[in-house]
Structure formats: structure tokens, C-alpha cells
Amino acid sequence: MAMRYKQYLQMLQKWPLDPSKQGRDLGKHLRVKVSEAFKMGDATRIADPAKCDADLAALNRIADNYYGKKFHRGRTTGAMGYNADKCSAIVSTHMLIAINEKQPGWFSRLRSRMKALDTPPPPKIK
């Protein structure tokens, strides 16, 4: 049991924390899940050791960028033409807050006014 716990701790050392993704960071989420799974540290009993080993192997492959090295890409950009740094900046918490705080554009305001005109007037009381 102690060996699995140490292997998980080694895997977590390879997984960096991303301060730009507050509350949405996968590294932090993994640290929480490992601490929940190994509540007693080395002395924790694992209910399904085969699944635990398979999960550890999968996480190690992701942390080591196994498939990125195995299937090398010629281009370093994504479908929109942005590089990894630009994509990381786009999905940062700072950018998401800025997008949510942005005021609606003129088209959105026009559409809301048009919808207001389409609503039927309230019935007249006689």
C-alpha cells in the first residue's frame, strides 16, 4: 500500500498547479482526490488495487505527455490558429471574468428592444 501512495505523490509532483485557473485547476483537483483516497497515508487499504494502478498509469501518461510525444504534430497551433500560450490565456480565470463583465454590444441591445416590441400589450380593462 505504501508503494502506491508514494507513486501517487510522485505523479502529483509532475503535475503543476496553474494559478491562472483558480477553482478550476486539474492539479489541485487531483491533489484533493488523492488526499481523499489515501486518508491514512501509507496505511490506507485500497478496495480495488487494479483500478488504482490503472488510474495511476493513465495519470502518469498524461503528466509525461506520452501521447504528445508518440504522435508528434507538425504544427504547434490549434484549429483557430492560436498557439498554446494564447489558448492558456483565453481560458484563464482572469479572461473569463472579463468576458462575463463585458457590457452587451449594440446588436444584443437592439435584439432585446425588438423582443420587447414583439410582446403583446397587456389587456385593457373596461
UniProtKB/TrEMBL annotation:
Highest taxon listed in the record's lineage: Eukaryota
Chief site of localization: mitochondrion
Lineage of producing organism: Eukaryota, Metazoa, Ecdysozoa, Tardigrada, Eutardigrada
Keyword vocabulary terms for this entry: Mitochondrion, Mitochondrion nucleoid, Transit peptide
Gene Ontology biological process terms, A to Z: mitochondrial respiratory chain complex III assembly
Any one GO CC term of the record: mitochondrial nucleoid
Name of the protein described by the UniProt record: Mitochondrial nucleoid factor 1
Subcellular location: Mitochondrion matrix, Mitochondrion nucleoid
PANTHER family (UniProt xref): UBIQUINOL-CYTOCHROME-C REDUCTASE COMPLEX ASSEMBLY FACTOR 2
One Pfam family matching this protein: UQCC2_CBP6
InterPro entries assigned: UQCC2
